[in-house]
Design brief:
CATH class of the largest domain: Alpha Beta
Largest sheet: 5 strands, antiparallel
Order of helices and strands: HEEHHHEEEHHEHEEHHEEHEE
Number of helices: 10
Number of strands: 12
Shape: elongated
Helix content: 40-55%
Radius of gyration: 28 Å
Strand order of the largest sheet: 2-1-5-4-3
Number of domains: 3
Structural class: alpha+beta
Strand content: 15-25%
CATH topology of the largest domain: Heat Shock Protein 90
CATH superfamily of the largest domain: Histidine kinase-like ATPase, C-terminal domain
Distance between the termini: 42 Å
Amino acid sequence: MSIESSFKPGGRGAGKAGRENAVRYAALDLLTSAVIILDADGWVDFANTAAETLLDFSFKTLVSQKFSRLFTNGKVIDALFEEALLFTFSNKRLDLTLERYQREALQLHGIITVLIDEPHAPVVLELQAIEAQIKFDREERILDQTQANRELIRNLAHEIKNPLGGIRGAAQLLELELNAPEFREYTQVIIKEADRLQTLVDRLLAPHRRPHIVGDVNVHEVCERVRSVILAEFPKGLDIERDYDTSVPEFRGDKEQLIQALLNIAHNAAQALRNFIAGGEPAEIIFRTRIARQVTIAKKRYRLALELHVIDNGPGIPEDIKERIFFPLVSGREGGSGLGLTLAQTFVQQHHGVIECESRPGRTDFKILLPLP
């Protein structure tokens, strides 16, 4: 017998009342958080779509039961519910574990609110998986950091650019006045270093200067272009696997920017695998595309989104820079400029998307999330 079939319908949320509540609270289906509304006796009056997904119960099952009975440790819910009815708090935040019959327990962050202004003071439970909360906080932090980095880079680059031109020009004039060829070696050092810094500044300013050229983008064409570039640089010992979802639709975007973003990520992955390639060990990068549904990016909800993964089996990102990899001038390898991921994040955010990363030894997964029409 299934878990759901062991519960008997006919509770206070079932039938006509359940349908009326479904209409009354329809707007709550737009939320990514699970929302459950309990009546004054602890029965489920309404549960949104996110609650069905999170708890893995159908709407019919949820609205036909006293909520606490769905869990083996339902006394936890009963105790919170009694506190709420006594108006011990108007709202309360807490982390809790809900143990489901014959299923994995859920680790949740919850907000319990008493709607005092409503008849019979219904209680609202807003639940979110702790992992999802952590992910949301991390994404928000990345967006804030990227915005701050962008402003810092733009201002700093402009401040550097003007005196740099003066230094180079002065070195050129000085070189013309020098009679001894051996002294010109020093002016050449100044000129070459000024040019190197100019190139660095130009790269920092590139995302802000280049016009956004929008057209139809096929993500798999982007992947194939990047794949061919990487394999041209690493013709032996590196395997780049394709795992494409051909149902991913075309979307509007700047194809060249997205190619550059993906190339920066894939090139970092290939560089991380250099020792594997040199030692004859398996060195693999996977390009994976999928469609994600009901995704929140930068606090905005999208019905569909593209997930583009770049996965490698390298040593992973060093722990000391893992939280700072999208900062400018932070690099995990000797000789790296530390701009590749910063620019990639900027280009993706200009498409209203975000890049996330999970890394451990043997598997690093960069995920590009882009909203789809």
